[in-house]
């Protein structure tokens, strides 16, 4: 019989590695299985191509949780740089600062359109949709129909590949709950007048953030090294294909297959999984009753077309959100603005065009050459780089990037959680896909940290599912990462 592992972790993303780091640091026996043959970090990894580094999705290191900020400093103490946060929205052939500047927005929209937005907001407040169920209804109630159509509808439907009437209001409540139109307008006026310097508070959009000098993968490479240094194991190229629990002993037998088809078997007292719930439940044998519910969970995928060249167009943005429906690209990252060390020289430009899609659809299956041509045409149309200035390109595909919040997802997850609690007490779900919750990096880490602390305590001190229930600081908070030390503290469940 194989050696019994105390805890087996499925997935070396932020949640899985945080759990493994916390447990192994405490002397706990841990083995992490990661399907990727090269990278740890999951969607937070840093990919590379010919000396160019790029972030998969863009990951600011900002959190109001002191515990997470302390953990970042502990794992990667000497490699953070402070970066200014600069984002814009592209819509109707014009650029809007994000967060909005009132006079700029007024100029771009025009007086009549701006007045219509104000009137639409007033109408929504006078006649709101009762008990909003969809993303459309929620945003319409809070911002008005006109602003919904300009600044929410197109981008949201690009991201999700769904009509806004088919997306649950839970999505809006989780991601933009803390935004208030009046506060946003006043913030925009202060920015337009240059009066926002030094302003803090929970309602101010962050103006700076910390970032590892060579991308977020530095954090997870360092975490992996330290886990191994503590005696833990991280085995790459191990795609979990089966899990079975012995009813008498409670032990888990886990099988994993490498790229060559070789199957390895592990026996563990408990399992922490950050794998997509749909994949996890499909791998459990005998099949759980709730496997049918897991099959109904959906995911959104995306790919990044990286364009490399020399350009004299000044682009200070970290990223640009593309709300314009005339192009397919959803967001453009400027990797130099994340960190100059992401590029091998001072003259090159490296932009990442993000296209949201479904695995297997037309975009996903397009050749890299066709995707590069599409990206060159669209970046030129937007005006961020000339097509003739592009000298090289590469494509990175990211499956299951976003758990989909359709109208039925919550009931499916609730049913799955109920069965796991009753039948599999030694199985712990963490992370974005592991919990089917669109968590930020720091939220995913918190689920891994709290799960590890529960395991070390031998009892459930913390309710992991409450992480990010009130996510107003996802895009908000005071300027600068140092202010993040004014944290949202972890509250033990028994004291709540």
Mind explaining what this structure looks like?
The protein has helices spanning 14-25, 66-75, 102-109, 111-126, 135-143, 145-151, 153-160, 169-175, 181-192, 217-229, 277-283, 291-295, 335-338, 362-365, 368-382, 409-423, 432-435, 441-457; strands at 4-10, 30-33, 46-49, 52-55, 80-84, 87-91, 94-98, 208-212, 233-235, 239-245, 252-257, 263-273, 299-309, 319-322, 331-334, 349-357, 390-403, 427-429. The chain is of the alpha/beta class and 496 residues long. It folds into three domains: 4-44 and 64-76 and 213-293 and 407-495, FAD/NAD(P)-binding domain (3-Layer(bba) Sandwich); 100-204, no CATH class; 299-403, Polyamine Oxidase, Chain A, domain 2 (Alpha-Beta Complex), CATH 3.90.660.20. Strand 11 and strand 12 (263-273) form a beta hairpin. The longest helix is centred in the last third of the chain and has 17 residues, at 441-457. The chain is globular, with a radius of gyration of 23 Å.
Strand content is 15-25%
Helix- and strand-based class?
A: alpha/beta
For the termini, the CA-CA separation is: 43 Å
Which term fits the overall shape? globular
Task: Give the number of domains.
Answer: 3
Number of helices: 18
CATH homologous group name of the largest domain = FAD/NAD(P)-binding domain
CATH architecture of the largest domain: 3-Layer(bba) Sandwich
Mean pLDDT: 88
Rg from alpha-carbon coordinates: 23 Å
Low-pLDDT regions? 198-204, 470-491
* Portion in helices: 25-40%
Say what the CATH topology of the largest domain is.
FAD/NAD(P)-binding domain
Major beta sheet, specifics?
7 strands, mixed
CATH class of the largest domain: Alpha Beta
The count of β-strands is 18
């Amino acid at each position: 019989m194989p050696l019994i592992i105390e805890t087996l972790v499925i997935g070396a993303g932020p949640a899985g590695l945080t759990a493994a780091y916390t447990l192994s640091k405490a002397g706990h026996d841990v083995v992490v299985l990661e399907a990727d043959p090269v990278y740890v970090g999951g969607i937070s990894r840093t990919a590379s191509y010919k000396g160019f580094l790029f972030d998969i999705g863009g990951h600011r290191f900002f959190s109001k949780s002191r515990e997470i900020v302390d953990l970042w400093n502990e794992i990667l103490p000497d490699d953070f740089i402070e970066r200014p946060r600069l984002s814009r929205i592209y819509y109707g052939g014009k650029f809007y600062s994000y967060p909005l500047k009132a006079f700029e927005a007024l100029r771009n929209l025009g007086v009549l359109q701006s007045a219509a937005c104000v009137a639409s907001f007033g109408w929504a407040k006078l006649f709101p949709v009762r008990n909003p169920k969809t993303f459309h209804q929620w945003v319409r109630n809070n911002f008005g129909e006109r602003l919904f159509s300009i600044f929410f509808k197109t981008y949201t439907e690009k991201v999700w590949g769904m009509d806004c009437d088919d997306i649950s209001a839970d999505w809006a409540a989780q991601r933009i709950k803390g935004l208030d139109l009046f506060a946003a307008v006043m913030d925009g006026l202060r920015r337009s007048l240059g009066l926002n310097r030094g302003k803090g508070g929970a309602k101010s959009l962050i103006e700076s953030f910390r970032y590892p000098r060579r991308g977020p993968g530095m954090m997870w490479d360092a975490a992996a090294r330290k886990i191994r240094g503590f005696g833990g194991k991280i085995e790459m190229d191990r795609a979990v294909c089966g899990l079975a629990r012995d009813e008498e002993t409670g032990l888990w037998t886990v099988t994993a297959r490498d790229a060559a088809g070789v199957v390895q078997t592990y026996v563990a007292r408990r399992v922490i999984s950050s794998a997509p719930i749909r994949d996890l439940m499909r791998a459990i044998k005998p099949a759980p009753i709730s496997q049918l519910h897991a099959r109904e969970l959906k995911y959104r995928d995306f790919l990044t077309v990286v364009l490399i060249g020399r350009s004299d167009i000044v682009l200070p943005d970290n990223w640009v959100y593309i709300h314009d429906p005339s192009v397919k690209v959803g967001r453009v990252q400027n990797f130099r603005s994340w960190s100059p060390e992401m590029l091998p020289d001072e003259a090159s430009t490296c932009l990442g065009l993000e296209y949201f899609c479904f695995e297997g659809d037309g975009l996903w299956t397009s050749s890299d050459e066709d995707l590069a041509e599409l990206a060159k045409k669209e970046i030129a149309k937007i005006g961020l780089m000339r097509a003739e200035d592009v000298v090289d390109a590469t494509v990175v595909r990211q499956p299951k990037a976003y758990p989909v919040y359709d109208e039925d997802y919550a009931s499916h997850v609730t049913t799955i959680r109920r069965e796991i609690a009753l039948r599999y007490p030694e199985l712990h779900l963490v992370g974005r896909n592991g919990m089917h919750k669109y968590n930020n990096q720091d939220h995913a880490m918190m689920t891994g940290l709290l799960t590890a602390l529960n395991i070390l305590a031998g009892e459930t001190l913390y309710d992991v599912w409450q992480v990010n229930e009130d996510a107003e600081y996802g895009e908000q908070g005071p300027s600068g990462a140092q202010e993040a030390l004014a944290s949202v503290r972890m509250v033990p469940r028994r004291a709540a």
